Amino acid sequence: MNPNPNPDSSDVLVEFPHLFRKYKDGRIERFLGTETTPAGTDPRTGVQSKDVTINAGTGVGARLYLPPNAASSAQKLPLLIYIHGGAFCVCTPYNPGYHLHMNTVAAAANVVVVSVHYRLAPEHPLPIAYDDTWEAIQWAAAHAAASGGGPEPWLNDHADFGKVFFAGDSAGANLAHSMGMRGASEGFGGLKLNGLVLIHPYFGNEERDKLVEFLYPAYGGVDDPKIHATRDPKISGLGCGRVLVMVAGKDFLRDRGRSYYEVLKKSGWNGVVDMVESEGEDHVFHLFDPTKENSAALVKQFVSFMKQV
User: Fold this and answer.
1) Which of 101, 124, 228, 283 is catalytic?
2) Residue 106 to residue 154: CA distance in whole angstroms
3) How far apart are CA 187 and CA 120, in angstroms?
4) Active-site hit among 42, 169, 232, 251
5) What is the pLDDT of residues 274-292, one digit of tens each?
6) What 3 state SS string does 111-153 have?
7) For 84-117, how does the pLDDT look when each residue is reduced to its tens digit (9 = 90+)?
8) DSSP of 240-292
């Protein structure tokens, strides 16, 4: 969707450049992440994908990915629950960049993927995205509890619920961390979370974030653990044993990812956290140009992390 270059300023309530414009009549005009691509069989990788509805009332759903040798595999495959980024307010799992990335990762790592579709702010203010993502995780976990009798055959037949990873980029990495914390306190419902992969994660810092304040009416400031994970006194209870933090050299969020790594490492958490940096690259560069060498290296590091189970 192309933004109207000359909107009547009297009609605009607020605008966040490159993300969205909200009009006084409630309309939202998004500038990014509106393109979609259909599910199906990817000719490049042979990965199959399909869309499922998790909650018909809210529209929460997922795009599932099944690698080409899943049917012939003697063993069930690890499960990756992926959470897209987009500042909590743009993008979906159905965007071409995310779809290509998940096809690539599913094939290279030989994993089943649940790519979560959560509702976007500001129409659905935070923390709705957190609750929607948790609902999707519980939906996946229901298949483990049902011992093959869950609603989705791909998960019943092919997913190993003892080998589960949460991952995401930017705001999705924030959500992935939060899900690891929530599962530690509430239980994962039959899923064994092996690790988190946080790609160019968004976490708050000491600076005022007007976007977060607008999207999250109940925002608790710098002590809000959803936005400010490094200020969370319970971070040492993170519910997995391994974390990979990926940062990019030119990314405005680079130092926040590095800070998260340092805080988690020193928190007393009983796990191993590693960090890798893509030098000279910008925020989520791998989604915008998946063909470059550093994008291939990022995927390789992501895949290698998941194969260490």
Assistant:
1) 283
2) 14
3) 26
4) 251
5) 999 999 999 999 999 999 9
6) CEEEEEECCCCCCCCCCHHHHHHHHHHHHHHHHHHCCCCCCCH
7) 999 999 999 999 999 999 999 999 999 999 999 9
8) SSEEEEEEETT-TTHHHHHHHHHHHHHTT-SSEEEEEEETT--TTHHHH-TTS
Rounded to an integer, what is the distance from CA 268 to the centroid of its chain? 25
Is 61 in contact with 94 (CB distance < 8 Å)? no
Per DSSP bridges, beta strands 77-83 and 159-169 are parallel
- Residue from 170, 178, 267, 295 carrying the catalytic annotation: 170
Section 14-19 average pLDDT: 96
**Which is nearest to 114 in space by CA: 83, 88, 89?**
83
- Give this prediction's pTM: 0.96
The residues near 130 (Cβ < 8 Å, ≥ 6 apart) are 175, 178, 179, 182, 226
Residue 20 tokens read as 């969205």
Residue 203 · residue 171 · CB < 8 Å = no
Q: What are the DSSP calls for 85-98, one per residue?
A: -STTTS--TTSHHH
Per the annotation, the verdict on 72 as an active-site residue is: no
Active site residue 158: no
Both tokens of 231, joined, read 């200020």
Euclidean distance between CA atoms 251 and 81, whole angstroms? 24
Indicate the burial class of 220 (C-beta count within 10 angstroms; 0-12, 13-18, 19 or more). Answer: exposed
The yes-or-no answer on residue 255 being catalytic is no
CB neighbour class for 96 (10 Å; exposed up to 12, middle 13-18, buried from 19): exposed
